[in-house]
Amino acid sequence: MEGGEGEEKKQQLVEGEKGGEEERPSRLKPPALGTNPWLVYSHGKRYRNQSFYDVSGGSYHLKSIPEMRNKLIWNCSYGWLILLHASKNATLSKTECDCSLLNPISMQNIKLPRMTNVVTSYVLLSRPPSDPNCYVICFPKSKQCVMFCKVGDVEWIEQELQDLGLRPDEEDYLGCVGTYDGQIHMLRSEKLFLVEIEDYHVTCTDLQIETPFKPQLRSCLDHVKSMVESSGELFLIFLFVFGRYFYHFEIMKLDSENKKWVSVQNLKDRAIFINLYGGPIASISTKEFSGLKENTIYFTSPEDRFLYHYNLEVKRVVICMPCPNVTQNWYQPMWFFP
To answer: What is the mean pLDDT of the chain?
Structure first.
């Protein structure tokens, strides 16, 4: 589908209208989100409930927001939740499902095209939805393509990797995706690419960065990569899994001038937030939030309801249960950054 046909595939965004917020009982509205980082759980029968945990303040709030019922949080981007509409036993590998965007502060709700062949993916916004050049971009981990759409489109567009100049073979794999300097970056087969999209066409530029050194650690069962921008710099984070509750982190920073990754031993007054397998990540100054621990990585796992803190100086994991009310039918918690 060509970009010139864009007007033919627009639909009315009736869900984007607001109204009646003042009449809602507090249980049906999100908490006062402010600027704090939040951890959000969807849980209960058909995911009717949401628990919001204020990581800085240490409190949690039980809600049942109509716009979030029966939905799974796929990701958070530019202060918007990207939601998948759940059916019974729904997962992110479901064959087909509806998608939407929700701003938990303004409560604006925007319908997205139905997605078929949904697979475990990285998904994010290229820009805020108010920008006419905003695209929702999906990077499937097990498909050799990029999927995208604009707000108002009635279908997703797939662009094959071979059309992007990438080699779709067994040695090609998706490491992670993140934003840096307002642009999307992708680590694929240990190569760093700049991903740009314009007029319904994606381009990927190999930035010719030296392959990052990955430590070879014995007894490591798995490792996960994440990218995050912090204080105007791009960081690559390796999380090594040795077993349940046994983790180790290695961090590298992009040296753009010399086109290589360099090791980082201390985050100083920064805290980084990641999910163990996919999902949003961000970096926040602990000077602005007294309840956060400096030089610490906060992360979650899809296997449990815990919140993990990993201090880079002592190299030790601390585990807490942020929302003890979440006891059944819960889905992987996701970070939300207003």
So the answer is: 85
CA 58 to chain centre: 22
254 pLDDT above the threshold of 50: yes
DSSP string, 25-50: -GGGS----TTS-EEEEEESGGG-EE
- What single-letter amino acid sits at 184? I
What helix, strand, coil percent values describe the chain, rounded to 5? 5, 45, 45
Q: Which amino acid makes up residue 285?
A: S
N-to-C CA span, the chain? 34
pTM of the predicted model as reported, rounded to 2 decimal places: 0.87
Sign of the four-CA dihedral 69, 107, 137, 116: positive
Provide the 8-state DSSP code for 181. T
Contact between 131 and 113 under an 8 Å Cβ cutoff? The reply is no
Torsion (CA) 1, 12, 48, 323 in degrees, nearest 10 = 70
Number of H helices, E strands in the chain: 0, 25
Minimal CA–CA distance to 97: which of 111, 107, 110?
Answer: 111
CA torsion sign, 161 to 163 to 164 to 168? Answer: positive
HEC string of 65-88 equals CHHHCCEEEEEEECCEEEEEECCC
Strands (E), 55-207: 60-63, 71-77, 80-85, 96-102, 109-116, 121-125, 135-140, 145-150, 157-160, 174-180, 183-188, 191-198, 201-206
Tokens 């970096």 found at = 283
| Per-residue pLDDT, 278 | 63
Q: How crowded is the C-beta side of 304, counted as CA atoms within 13 Å?
A: 11
- 83 contact partners, CB below 8 Å, separation of at least 6: 68, 71, 72, 73, 74, 99, 100, 101, 102
Query: What does the longest C-alpha to C-alpha distance in the chain come to?
Result: 58
